[in-house]
UniProtKB/TrEMBL annotation, chains A, C:
Family per record: Belongs to the 3-oxoacid CoA-transferase subunit B family.
Protein name: 3-oxoadipate--succinyl-CoA transferase subunit A
Source organism superkingdom: Bacteria
Gene designation per UniProt: gctA
Keywords: Transferase
Pfam families referenced in this protein's UniProt entry, alphabetically: CoA_trans
GO molecular function: CoA-transferase activity
Keyword Transferase: yes
Presence of the UniProt keyword Membrane in the record: no
TrEMBL record, chains B, D:
Protein name: 3-oxoadipate--succinyl-CoA transferase subunit B
Keyword field contains Cytoplasm: no
Organism: Acrocarpospora corrugata
Entry keywords, A to Z: Transferase
Any one Gene Ontology molecular-function term assigned to this protein's record: CoA-transferase activity
Signal peptide residue numbers: none
Keyword Transferase: yes
Superkingdom per UniProt: Bacteria
Family the entry assigns: Belongs to the 3-oxoacid CoA-transferase subunit B family.
Pfam families in the cross-refs: CoA_trans
Length: 269, 250, 269, 250
């Protein structure tokens, strides 16, 4: 059953140094508040998993929290590069970053296998791509009925998955809607699940397009209003596109980045 | 009315969607073109975004593939695994529309790493995203790329996404079901694969652009098709629709 | 794009002798009206696919429309046996019925593979069960990462899938809700899709838990009010549990069955 | 208050759910027991039906696993593939609760075909349904079966669902993750696997039933555990709750 905790308690009890951590949300519902708490608590040596690393992982990587990144598209959507990600990969600053790189279809199916507790998933993918030559988690498998060779990807099973959702009830049942992305699969693939929510409500009245994660599939729920900012929470907040644009100059320079993180993350909350 | 080469590129890219029913839309230039097509040549075009939306009808250009309006205006919102497995992989999408960092003469794409030469670390690009499977599984692929030696290169540093591989027959050999790239639309004109060799050749030029200019801006020795067409300038309607879209964009 | 047709036209244009036909609906939304139209049109030699054959297939089998059944549980839910199914299997009446038999998990994954246009699906299933020895569509596959051996099931791709749904709009977009079962996978696995609906509406306002099948993934929509009876359509009709109970004596005897079908199906509509 | 053996069987089956958080419920007797548990020993018990409902709270006994009320009262309704892949196969369910046509001494189940002897066609049973994977994947398995030589047999004609296979260690060898069947609850008492041999032995008898009666109604030579308990008769509350449930049933 999910415990309802403060964000500080939830991160302290669920996210440990060296963990494999997935913070998911496909543009929508990205758990920024939780990531900032991870940074404040100084959790390090993380293997970060995420289809679209986005600004959230640029921040974690730039602060030195990660030793490895598992991903499929690492940019600032609609804006350009993730400069901290590039600096880590190209120059090893602030520390080298190991990569395991996939396509979106591959990553999505790795989560599906993880949520299903299968060791791998099958897809038509990677054919002719050099990606397969660089990743130990891409292989092939032969159909026992037709003989066709297909791509196989290894399951991903994070130690912790962190997601943001619209709301939970007092028992810890979680409800999210809008672009539901890979949230459910990422949560169900993990050993431990932390969900930040905009609010706790008495009852989760049904909503079109809503996904419900029952309390017994979640470990901690923490209230974090506007906890997806600069991403958004459909029905509560809108995407702060200006922030995404502003992140480009902030993140280009190491010192500007560090000063920003100090002012807005380390000394905040 | 005056217009820029970028505007004509986008208008021309939208026109290429005239016959399509469904389009899997990459973000950036492809999204602008696909949304413009819905306002001009193809009002019923079904836009599919990898964030899980089927039939998005945004009123302004989304900054990302996950903007709220893509979901709010969609016929259906599905999970990311579903969009890739049940819709893309299953071969239900007519056209995949992609941008690219590096494209070679067989319309293969690199969006992973750039070789900066000996002793220097590889330059990092964003990565594959949905492209490898979009290019594999859609009925055909359109690409929109700014015409430069940086983007249209002699040799890819890394093959992220297969277009026509190393030439005719390669897609079949690799088991890629779709027809692959049929046009690379640029701000100078259009390149299309030669029916015999699968090599991208110049088939269309913007008004006022010469074949020499296009060749100069191409990283391989660009061949010119026997009959090179001239791109129709944007109509007043096309231009108005594009500018309205862009003004409303983020 | 879906064409909106009469049920008679829709069946005539989409369901052909010898086809593999899936009529799905997990207790809910079972397309009885369409099945009755198939019987009236005298379509035969069908390979029928369905997780839970239910009364709908008892009727098709009893009328001699099927040469083969692909399934995972063939009973009258909460009541007992399907007598026409048993009579066909045990005594070959009115004709012999070939079987391909799975577990629910296996059948569900066969549809998933079909909808994904993969030749097979992987699951943890059938271990130690004699089912695997009787079906050519059950095999094994080895994980290329861990070496573990898992069950593999062949994809199912019907020529036609028939489902019932709450409603469609005038463009042929289909909306269904409640127990959505295997409806989406069965539809997307097929070459041709026929959907019967309670009604055609101007707009499909969003509904909690609704699945939408876009018009371009459907081939024909036909209005069939109460078209799931004795099954039900959440929001429109309730399950006729009395009919399921009444089916037991009707279907026990060949002549009683034939008389009932004549009166209520062949001479109806 | 008087009660029938069937009533005590159902009450006793409900009691077996006292410590469970989540239960994957087969239709028929298991569903009656699981719903009774929610009204007696385990109000918070999460009922999961293979039709795709998580946390159903029906006010009356459903006739089928797909009655509308199961969906209307659920915390979440998911697709059938999801219920089997993400929830059952992933090992999230504490208890699987099954009925059965034929059970052998190692709690293996046949629900497929009955051998009627030479020259006669096999008798047809409904088939596997969800049972093989429920018995494989749940933390443990409870079964509820009427006690007769027809149901509890010396040898299965077909192994649809593996309980303990051919004895100790078989589940591990087959790679079945859950503990397998821990109790077969009947209208005469309860059989449980012997900790050493995994063979079902008599561990509990209903009031007024003798070990001989149970042995007589069992198709194999039924052993009796060293200390056979007597099932507590139903309390007035249990009986009232059960009868209220049944009266409201279809």
């Amino acid at each position: 059953m999910a415990e309802i905790l403060s964000l500080r308690e939830a991160v302290a009890s669920l996210v440990r140094p060296g963990d494999t951590v997935a913070m998911e949300g496909f543009t929508h519902l990205i758990p920024f508040a939780a990531a900032h708490e991870v940074i404040r608590q100084g959790v390090t040596d993380l293997t970060l998993v995420r289809m679209t690393p986005d600004v959230i992982y640029d921040q974690l990587i730039g602060m030195g929290a990660a030793r490895k990144l598992v991903f499929s598209w690492g940019g600032n959507p609609g804006v350009g590069s993730l400069h901290r990600f590039r600096d880590a990969v190209e120059n090893g600053w602030p520390r080298p970053l190991e990569l395991d790189e996939h396509s979106h279809a591959g990553m999505a199916n790795r989560y599906v296998a993880g949520a299903s507790r299968l060791p791998f998933a099958v897809l038509r993918g990677y054919r002719g791509s050099d990606l397969a030559t660089r990743s130990p988690t891409i292989s092939t498998v032969r159909c026992p009925f037709t003989g066709e060779e297909l791509a196989a990807v290894a399951a991903v099973n994070p130690d912790v998955t962190v997601i943001h959702a619209q709301r939970a009830d007092r028992d810890g049942n979680v409800q999210l809607w809008g672009l539901v992305g890979i949230q459910k699969e990422a949560a169900l693939a993990a050993e431990r699940v932390l969900v930040t929510v905009e609010e706790i409500v008495d009852a989760l009245d049904p909503r079109p397009g809503a996904v419900v994660l029952p309390s017994w599939s979640v470990h901690a729920v923490a209230v974090a209003p506007n906890g997806a900012h600069p991403s958004y929470t459909a029905g509560y907040t809108v995407r702060d596109n200006d922030f995404y644009q502003a992140w480009d100059p902030i993140s280009r320079d190491r010192d500007t980045f560090l000063a920003w993180m100090r002012a807005h993350v380390l000394e905040a909350a | 009315m005056s217009w820029t080469p970028d505007e004509l590129m986008t208008v021309n890219a939208a026109r290429a969607l005239a016959g399509a029913r469904t389009c899997f839309v990459g973000i950036g230039l492809p999204s602008a073109a696909a949304n413009l097509a819905r306002r001009t040549v193809r009002p019923g075009l079904v836009l599919i975004y990898e964030s899980g939306t089927l039939g998005s009808k945004p009123s302004r250009l989304p900054l990302s593939i996950g903007d709220g309006e893509l979901a709010d205006t969609a016929d259906a919102v599905v999970s990311v695994p579903e969009i890739f497995n049940y819709w893309l992989q299953a071969g239900r999408i007519d056209v995949g529309f992609l941008g690219a960092a590096q494209v070679d003469r067989y319309a293969n794409i690199n969006t992973t790493v750039i070789d900066r030469g000996p002793g220097r670390p590889e330059g990092r690009l964003p990565g594959a995203g949905g492209a490898p499977e979009i290019a594999a599984g859609c009925g055909k692929v359109l690409m929109v790329v700014r015409h430069s030696r940086r983007n249209l290169v002699e040799r890819l540093d890394f093959v992220t996404t297969v277009g026509h591989g190393s030439g005719p027959g390669d897609r079949a050999r690799l088991g890629l079901p779709g027809a692959g790239p049929v046009a690379v639309i640029t701000d100078l004109g259009v390149l299309r694969p030669d029916p015999e060799t699968a090599e991208l050749v110049l088939t269309e030029l913007h008004p006022g652009v010469s074949a020499e200019q296009a060749a100069e801006a191409t990283g391989w020795k660009l061949r010119t098709a026997p009959d090179v067409g001239e791109t129709e300038p944007p109509t007043a309607e096309e231009l108005a629709a594009l500018r309205e879209l862009s003004d409303r964009g983020a």
